[in-house]
Amino acid sequence: MIGSRKWMEINQGSLSFKEKINLLKQTLLPTTYKYAKTFIQSHVNHTHFALHDVQIPDTPMVKEAMAELENTQDRVIFHHSWRSFFWGVGIAHSKDWHFDQESFVIACLMHDLGLVEHLDQYSCNCFTYESALRSESLCLKHQYDASRTKIISEAICLHMNGYLDESNQDLPIEALLLQQATSCDVIGTDYARFSKTYAKDVLIQHPRTQFNSHFKKLLHKESLNHPQSRTALVSRLGLPYMIQLNIFKE
Prior knowledge:
Shape: globular
Distance between the termini: 35 Å
Strand content: under 5%
Organism: Acinetobacter bereziniae NIPH 3
Number of helices: 13
Helix content: 55-70%
Structural class: mainly alpha
CATH topology of the domain at 5-11 and 60-207: Hypothetical protein af1432
Protein name: HD domain-containing protein
Oligomer: single chain
């Protein structure tokens, strides 16, 4: 599958011409449709799920993932990563999905590390692959379960696909959640799934200050450094404009 951990190992994150066409066929229409819906949908009315209901696993792995994110000294991406976690938990609640909360929060905290802080030891052609490899190193250090390590890595690699088919039973729930949660935070898709109170509380705790402009700069840099990556492809197709026009205010 394009964007998967296995695909990354073979291609290092570079898309062939045929893969670009296939990815467009898979993602363009559903992503555009979901984006358009953000401007006409209203928030759900229920308020029985609140921010204080979300429990963050207090484990050594999570603490070190938090430290790695903090060490980037990028407050914009710090808040984006945490918002993605809370959006993901809210999406899972709205769909009655059960997921591994520890693996998911680690994936959220580490998914953009390669975008904001490239390390010379990695020669990947996609920031998600570097982020995934760094998550794998952390998992290995903590002797994390191999199957859960794979889930984290797969979720990070796939989150830039733009759209993942929920009916694909080969995809871990955590991968679906990370893709949908990051899309929610970047362009506003699925935002209407949350109550106004829940959404407001997340944004107060993790504000979007300068996110749109900062994230567009990071995408531009990534596109220049890796012109055959998914980031470069979706940027050429208009992702920066979708960010600029999203329903959020900076």
